[in-house]
């Protein structure tokens, strides 16, 4: 296999190195394209063919349905590790030993307070505000209370920034939910595990003792792990590109949350549930909605189907589908929405339109059903996604800064007006 690619243009030949990843993926390295060809660039809207970086964090093979964090399969991690171990693995590259994990958790506990003044900011939002907007704003507001930029040349400063956000972000998530529900804002409980503590902060009712439900905590842990990282997706690329200007970690994360919000990305889990509820309210006729999804004159898309990279199946969807069945069974919940979901999935998998376009259920198709079973309101689903993706965003930001990547600044091909004389207002 050649380690060079040749471009022929205007009778001239230009050679570019072909680089190979550790899983044999190949890329033409065009770093010198513009300079060597006197101005040629590539154009690739949506970056469908463009690698923005090399990365040692997550490997996924969309054709084979493989997803690994730092070399470990998502199936193994979802079954054998907990979310905090996976967060450590993603960020620092190796699974922690007992001592490292204990220290990591203790350091996070030490930072789990959020400045009381933040409550005033939260207070100023209407209850009806979308939780993703609130979370993004609160994450941004954290900068005001933690203003120092991270000295990336110092391992200790980097570590401190990381544990601070891993500690404070769950508090913001819990407050976002509690504000929505009109519940008093609370802090965590040092004696609990990371995920259990988040659950308690979100759901404890005033005056009531919090009772741990193993099934719920395990399901939540698994969901967070499955959302941990997904290489250079829209929100992660946003975090990296904002961070590439040397904006701080919290500012970069806040931008990532906004990117995740959209219904074509993390917002799809909310959109899936809303779609299923709409189908139920409309009499449960899945065929009608299948026809709408295929009609090019109808903007309706089957939410939770299709993925930019997974073109055979989404491995996370497989794990989550099984977990949804287990959680609903264990909690004794019979949800008609699940039946509609199963009906839609079956029809889509057998339908030529979906087969031809390789459209399969993605992680969001089933995650909403579990979140609903866990009592999480629909518009909080994407917030839960953000909670799971936090370690991924942090690890990608850290890698980008440690690699000394240049500022992200794509080019364009201008197709607007050529130079024209200015016309004064009176003469227009
Ligand atoms: N329903 C109906 N048709 C679809 C769907 C869908 N959900 N998804 C894609 N298609 C069709 C498109 O209309 C297009 O058809 P055409 O070739 O006849 O024009 C073809 O399949 C290819 O679709 P693209 O939009 O070009 O695929 P792309 O890779 O750009 O988009 C995306 C992927 C955004 C996920 C898309 O499949 C989609 O909108 N899905 C629904 C939203 C969703 O579930 N998003 C969550 C993604 S997972 C995540 O973020 C965790």
Automatic annotation (TrEMBL):
GO cellular component, one term: cytoplasm
Keyword set includes Glycoprotein: no
One Pfam family of this chain: Citrate_synt
Active-site residue numbers: 307, 364
GO biological process: tricarboxylic acid cycle
Known pathway: Carbohydrate metabolism; tricarboxylic acid cycle; isocitrate from oxaloacetate: step 1/2
Keyword annotations from UniProtKB, A to Z: Acyltransferase, Transferase, Tricarboxylic acid cycle
Catalytic reaction annotation: oxaloacetate + acetyl-CoA + H2O = citrate + CoA + H(+)
Coiled-coil ranges per UniProt: none
InterPro entries: Citrate_synth-like_lrg_a-sub (IPR016142), Citrate_synth-like_sm_a-sub (IPR016143), Citrate_synthase (IPR002020), Citrate_synthase_AS (IPR019810), Citrate_synthase_bac-typ (IPR024176), Citrate_synthase_sf (IPR036969), Citrate_synthase_typ-I (IPR010953)
NCBIfam families, A to Z: cit_synth_I, PRK05614.1
Name of the featured protein: Citrate synthase
Species annotation: Pelagihabitans pacificus
């Amino acid at each position: 296999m050649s380690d060079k690619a040749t471009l022929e243009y205007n009778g001239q030949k230009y050679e570019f190195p072909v680089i190979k990843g550790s899983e044999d993926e190949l890329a033409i390295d065009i770093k010198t394209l513009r300079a060597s060809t006197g101005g040629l660039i590539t154009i690739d809207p949506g970056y469908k063919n463009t690698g923005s970086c090399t990365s040692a964090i997550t490997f996924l093979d969309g054709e084979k349905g493989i997803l690994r964090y730092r070399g470990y399969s998502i199936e193994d991690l979802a079954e054998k590790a907990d979310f905090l171990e996976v967060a450590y693995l993603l960020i620092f590259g190796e699974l922690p030993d007992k001592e490292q994990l204990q220290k990591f958790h203790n350091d996070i506990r030490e930072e789990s307070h959020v400045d009381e003044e933040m409550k005033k900011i939260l207070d100023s939002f209407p209850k009806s505000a979308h939780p993703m907007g609130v979370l993004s704003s609160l994450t941004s507001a954290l900068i005001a209370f933690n203003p120092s930029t991270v000295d990336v040349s110092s391992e200790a400063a980097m570590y401190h920034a990381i544990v601070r956000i891993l500690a404070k972000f769950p508090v913001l998530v819990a407050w976002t939910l509690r504000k929505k529900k009109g519940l008093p804002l609370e802090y965590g409980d040092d004696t609990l595990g990371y995920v259990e503590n988040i659950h308690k902060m979100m759901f404890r009712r005033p005056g009531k003792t919090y009772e741990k439900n193993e099934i719920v905590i395990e399901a939540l842990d698994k969901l967070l792990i499955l959302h941990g990282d997904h290489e250079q997706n829209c929100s992660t690329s946003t975090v990296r590109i904002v961070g590439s200007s040397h904006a701080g970690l919290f500012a970069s994360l806040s931008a990532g949350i906004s990117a995740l919000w959209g219904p074509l990305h993390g917002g799809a889990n909310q959109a899936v549930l809303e779609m299923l509820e709409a189908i139920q309210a409309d009499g449960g006729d899945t065929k009608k909605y299948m026809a709408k999804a295929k009609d090019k004159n109808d903007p309706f898309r089957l939410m939770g189907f299709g993925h930019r990279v997974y073109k055979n199946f989404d491995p996370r969807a497989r794990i989550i589908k099984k977990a949804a069945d287990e959680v609903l069974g264990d909690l004794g919940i019979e949800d008609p929405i699940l039946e509609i979901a199963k009906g839609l999935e079956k029809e889509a998998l057998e339908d030529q339109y979906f087969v031809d376009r390789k459209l399969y259920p993605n992680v969001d198709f089933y995650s909403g059903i579990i979140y609903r079973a866990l009592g999480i309101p629909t518009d909080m689903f994407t917030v839960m996604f953000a909670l799971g993706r936090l370690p991924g965003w942090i690890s990608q930001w850290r890698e980008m800064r440690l690699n000394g990547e240049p500022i992200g600044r794509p080019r364009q091909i201008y197709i607007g007006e050529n130079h024209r004389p200015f016309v004064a207002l009176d003469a227009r």
